Amino acid sequence: MNAFPAGDALVRRDLDLLWHPCTQMYDHRTVPMVPIARGEGAWLIDTSGRRYLDGISSWWTNLFGHANPRLAAALAEQAGTLEHVIFAGFTHEPAVTLAEELVRVTPPGLDRVFYADNGSAAIEVALKMSFHYWLNQGHGEKTRFIALTGSYHGETLGALSVSDVALYRKTYAPLLLTPILAPSADTYEAHPGESASDVAQRRLDELRQLLEEHAHEVCAVIVEPLVQCAGGMRMYHPDYLAGLRRLCDTYNVHFIADEIAVGFGRTGTLFACEQAHVAPDFMCLSKGLTGGFLPLSAVLTTTQVYEAFYAEYSAGKAFLHSHSYTGNPLACRVALETLRIFRDEPVLERNRVLSAHLAKRLAPLRDHPHVADVRQTGMIAAVELVADKTTRTPFPSLERRGLRVYLHGLEHEALLRPLGDIIYFMPPYVVSTDEIDHLVDTAIAGIERAVA
């Protein structure tokens, strides 16, 4: 790995002081810390001039390329006008206009917008708001949530409470709420002869049984629509979302859609819920909301939920959750420009061409002896590496085969950060077909190296 600037002064300064997310810092004795100087479209450029094609959109946030001139101009213009103001008792044009646009483009019935700072914060807002709604309605016995097996909704304690990825949850389990887990409709778990729709129906039957038993104590069911991202890019059929909406209505519980990673065109439609023609009671948005420029999240909900809190102060029904940077004008202005790019340009149409090309290039890996599955939903694709294809026996986790693919990618100008031994692709929408070829070619070579 001596091709990397291991002695770079910036790296040395970093390792003397910083503690990075989702990282065992000891790894950086052997795994390079990459010092990035600038971004350009789908590429990142380090301090030595080496380029890396951003195959994961910098943790799924970047939609229209690094240093996008249109978003940068909107940010600069807003910075010269109003950088921030308290959002309790005050308002401003970027927040109001963004809310109007979000209500316009999201599924019908989501008519109220609550801003927060990041995805985990949005989940916290939705969980608290759902519980508090039922409390205000005289149903204080509703204190639990149903989540899917393999789900991931964030790292704050509330968000982690409705997550089911042991790597993140296990250590903090004594501090967390205990969710009721419903089996995921993950198509990877299909029985022989089952279609994706069949799996969805079987899992809906199991969810119905859980609701029969627990609906009286359940505030909401929370799901990542269509793709369970951090849980391994697990994918399922839209029929599950349609059935979930019906069950939530039948059993009088809320439906929370965590579209933080899958929203804004990732799955082929602007929002994943559109593919099932459903509207949730709460929709959580972040990541691509600002095109990858600034932290911002939004929770959209219904007039019915809003009105359960609307009362004289003395009634004690107000939702007092707050963040200092709620409704930040800079972030709202950039988010508004992000939505305008969707309005002005054929983004989704172009994405369909790109996703079809990605599917074509990945198809040969289905026959690889160490690939158990190649799956894709829109601009999200994943390749699952295993020790034995027939039995789907995984490689021992301590062998870190996926890390070998990551390191190979860095050596060959590609950022491919895996989820364990799942190699995934979630590039910015400005990527070209030639750049997709580069990502896939690099991943294939890295896979061969990793399983050798």
TrEMBL record:
Its EC number is 2.6.1.62. One of its GO terms (biological process) is biotin biosynthetic process. It catalyses: (8S)-8-amino-7-oxononanoate + S-adenosyl-L-methionine = S-adenosyl-4-methylsulfanyl-2-oxobutanoate + (7R,8S)-7,8-diammoniononanoate. InterPro entries: Aminotrans_3, Aminotrans_3_PPA_site, BioA, PyrdxlP-dep_Trfase, PyrdxlP-dep_Trfase_major, PyrdxlP-dep_Trfase_small. One of its GO terms (molecular function) is adenosylmethionine-8-amino-7-oxononanoate transaminase activity. It is an enzyme of class 2 (transferase). Its main location: cytoplasm. Pyridoxal 5'-phosphate binds at G119, S120, D258, H323, S324. Substrate binds at W59, Y152, K287, S322, R417. Keywords: Aminotransferase, Biotin biosynthesis, Cytoplasm, Pyridoxal phosphate, S-adenosyl-L-methionine, Transferase. Its cofactor is pyridoxal 5'-phosphate. Homodimer. This is Adenosylmethionine-8-amino-7-oxononanoate aminotransferase. It comes from Dyella japonica A8. The lineage of its organism: Bacteria, Pseudomonadati, Pseudomonadota, Gammaproteobacteria, Lysobacterales.
